[in-house]
Design goal:
13% of the residues lie in helices and 51% in strands. A hairpin with a 5-residue loop joins strand 2 and strand 3 (69-81). A seven-stranded mixed beta barrel has the order 1-2-3-4-8-9-11. The protein has helices at 32-38, 97-106, 133-138, 229-242, and strands spanning 17-31, 51-63, 69-81, 84-94, 111-122, 146-158, 163-175, 183-193, 201-215, 219-224, 245-259, 263-266. Helix 1 (32-38) packs across helix 4.
């Protein structure tokens, strides 16, 4: 290794890093005053009528530099990066030590280790009239014709004692239709950094190819698994984002995501550390 070269997590190699699997991308209306507590004050929040666009990205990777693992990214809101905008992750939970280490040291993410437990529950079909813009856009009955529900419990653990800190329960309706939607290509630019491991402000991009369709939003429930004063404020911000009003849920299948190497946008945060929620 050359002098000054940053040591990368085993298995990741050089960027871009490729991840394959499926994901649920759910957008929420998040109160601007909540999002501002998660986002560095130097960044301008994209907002309207007191709200910004946040939510979460729940992914299951079958193939990645760290092998197969699950990930939950809590998105606090959107910030300006003229002429476009970038997402800001308030918390990233993964069930892979290697992925956690890579996220912290290479991408500047507030990554934490968590346990993911999943189960499928069969539910009766419910026939009801379709309403709303999303149903009209989709032109199908997937919202009304759900065969199963997938329940995902994400339990954050506090290193090194592995004490349960918070349980996040997501109930996801599985559409009965086998149609996976059109094939699309999209770019998801994001800011990161401002953490203990990476005090600088970074910018990176995720290039995604997948099949996409609108689905019924997942139902989110939060359980406090233990009392931890240090995590209380951090948890309240992330859980407030997760419990905010969902407006759209997109299912990504046959997904291939390439993550580019982050670039340093500003050195400012070297002297302005915060505790990441």
């Amino acid at each position: 290794m050359e002098n000054g070269e940053k040591k990368r997590s085993t298995g990741y190699g050089r960027p871009p890093w490729t991840f394959r699997g499926r994901a649920l991308y759910q957008l929420h209306l998040v109160k601007a005053k909540t999002a501002r507590k998660c986002i560095p004050k130097e960044l301008r929040l994209v907002e309207a009528f007191g709200y910004t666009l946040g939510g979460f990205f729940l992914a299951n990777y079958d193939d990645s530099p760290a092998g197969s693992f699950d990930e939950l990214v809590v998105i606090a809101g959107i910030v300006w990066n003229r002429p476009t905008s970038c997402a800001w992750a308030a918390k990233v939970l993964v069930n892979s030590d290697e992925a956690c280490d890579h996220g912290r040291k290479e991408v500047g993410l507030p990554s934490q280790v968590a346990r993911f437990a999943k189960r499928i529950e069969a539910v009766p079909k419910k026939h009801r009239s379709e309403r709303g813009l999303i149903n009209s856009f989709r032109g199908s009955s997937d919202f009304c014709n759900q065969k199963n529900q997938e329940h995902v419990q994400v339990t954050e653990v506090k290193d090194p004692t592995s004490i349960d800190v918070c349980n996040i329960n997501l109930s996801i309706s599985v559409p009965s239709s086998k149609w996976m939607g059109p094939a699309i290509k999209m770019s998801l630019p994001s800011y990161s950094g401002h953490t203990e491991n990476t005090p600088e402000l970074l910018k990176y991009s995720c290039q995604i190819q997948c099949r996409v369709r609108a689905v019924k939003p997942a139902v989110v429930a939060i359980e406090r698994a233990g009392e931890d004063e240090q995590h209380e404020h951090e948890q309240s911000l992330s859980t407030t984002v997760l419990l905010s009003k969902p407006i759209l849920a997109l299912e990504f299948s046959c997904m291939e995501m390439q993550v580019q190497a982050p670039t340093v946008v500003s050195q400012y945060f070297k002297h302005s550390l915060r505790t990441t929620p």
